[in-house]
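[Discussion] Sanity-checking designs against the backbone

I'm trying to build intuition for which residues belong where. Below is a structure token string of 448 positions. I'd appreciate it if someone posts a full sequence so I can compare it with mine line by line.
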């Protein structure tokens, strides 16, 4: 993809990128019903993992579909951007299916380094430069923590295989000290990547400073990859210590829900609203880890798919509308950018409405069922207090999710908005799937 930028026109790069991603999506099903371990038992393949990898690639396809009019300036290099997005997707796919902690680290670095560059790809935007530097420095710090945890895990078990954690199950507490240190540091390193509180301080600035198209990519691809990496570790490496780490994790979940939602209430910048919303959403995703059960993997898969559709459609509408209203030469990012959207383009207004309703967890959208499933997981393990926190914080979230909805029915002097065919198709798919999965949730969840 990178070298095609030297030989083909800019307009041809998007279809080529989509073709490559579609080939990757379809080729994953070659291994359907053929589970196994590959690359010296470092990567696992199974039907359920293929489905999760499909969610990652599908999200990348949808984000790319919104980029048709973004890279038309002479200084833009779309081939580089698309290549970096594909690198990030490869890293995410590795993180979803790793069997060895070395592969977890490799996948995380492939994903992260590409995103560090994409976050600062708009060199004319000082906030973008700040976002890139901040993301890089904080990410490098978190990677160091993760590596230290992996080293402690290896010291305790003598292996990087995720199943080797069970070898210390019967050890005395004195013999588990390195294992516990490794467990805590690995969790912290990955919780930073998913922007769970209190490791979230970078999130709002990076989301706001990065180009919107890459913010949408970051919000969906990264969260899906990291949450399933955490899930694999929780099930295969640390399950026998569940009673200990679940108490630590449930506090993280509560903080993420409370801090994410209460802070979002005071925001007027739409990207910062969705940034703090993503912190809260991370808390909800983590509920499946403390509610480990037969349905938890499927519930988590449903949640990530639902979140991807709603988030991409929300960012997509914002991307189109904000580029139509410039302030000091930059896209307007405040809530008032949506003023009068229903009159200017009713389709975009309805898509935004569906997106916000789903993220807030309103019935007849996929977001309702995704939150219901993960809250039910936590309730089965007796964590009723976190169930109450989740319900209360979902009610609080209605306030800021309805800010853009209210604005769409306000007055405006702006002209109608035109949308490219591929962006319109992408948004229609996201909105339709959000409603379809809300009406028939087992359409996808039943595959697990």
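Best answer:
Here's mine. Compare freely.
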């Amino acid at each position: 993809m990178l070298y095609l930028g030297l030989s083909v026109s800019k307009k041809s790069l998007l279809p080529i990128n989509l073709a490559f991603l579609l080939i990757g999506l379809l080729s994953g099903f070659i291994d359907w019903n053929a589970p196994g371990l590959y690359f010296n038992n470092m990567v696992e393949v199974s039907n359920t993992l293929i489905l999760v990898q499909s969610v990652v690639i599908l999200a990348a396809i949808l984000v790319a579909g919104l980029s048709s009019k973004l890279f038309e300036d002479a200084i833009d290099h779309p081939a580089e951007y698309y290549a970096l997005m594909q690198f990030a997707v490869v890293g995410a796919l590795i993180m979803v299916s790793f069997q060895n902690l070395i592969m977890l680290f490799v996948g995380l670095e492939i994903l992260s380094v590409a995103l560090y560059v994409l976050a600062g790809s708009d060199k004319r935007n000082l906030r973008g430069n700040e976002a890139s530097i901040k993301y890089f420095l904080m990410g490098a710090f978190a990677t160091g923590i993760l590596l230290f945890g992996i080293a402690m895990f290896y010291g305790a078990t003598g292996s990087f295989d995720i199943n080797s954690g069970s070898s210390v199950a019967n050890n005395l507490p004195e013999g588990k000290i390195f294992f516990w240190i490794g467990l805590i540091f690995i969790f912290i390193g990955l919780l930073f990547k998913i922007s769970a509180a209190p490791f979230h301080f970078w999130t709002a600035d990076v989301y706001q400073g990065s180009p919107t198209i890459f913010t949408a990519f970051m919000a969906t691809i990264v969260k899906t990859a990291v949450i399933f990496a955490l899930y694999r570790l929780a099930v295969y490496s640390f399950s026998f210590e569940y009673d200990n780490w679940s108490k630590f994790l449930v506090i993280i979940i509560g903080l993420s829900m409370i801090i994410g939602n209460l802070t979002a209430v005071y925001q007027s910048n739409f990207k910062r609203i969705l940034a703090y919303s993503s912190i809260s959403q991370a808390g909800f995703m983590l509920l499946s880890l403390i509610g480990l059960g037969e349905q938890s993997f499927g519930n988590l898969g449903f949640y990530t798919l639902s979140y991807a559709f709603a988030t991409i459609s929300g960012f997509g509408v914002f991307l189109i509308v904000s580029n139509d209203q410039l302030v000091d030469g930059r896209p307007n990012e405040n809530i008032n950018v949506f003023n009068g959207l229903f009159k200017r383009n009713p389709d975009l207004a309805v898509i935004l409405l569906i997106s916000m309703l789903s993220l807030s967890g309103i019935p007849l959208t996929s977001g309702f069922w995704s939150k219901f499933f993960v809250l039910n997981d936590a309730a089965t393990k007796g964590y009723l207090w976190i169930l109450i926190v989740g319900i209360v914080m979902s009610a609080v979230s209605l306030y800021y999710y309805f800010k853009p909805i209210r604005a769409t029915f306000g007055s405006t002097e702006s002209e109608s908005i035109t949308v490219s065919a591929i962006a319109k198709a992408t948004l229609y798919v996201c909105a339709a799937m959000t409603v379809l999965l809300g009406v028939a949730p087992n359409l996808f969840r039943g595959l697990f």
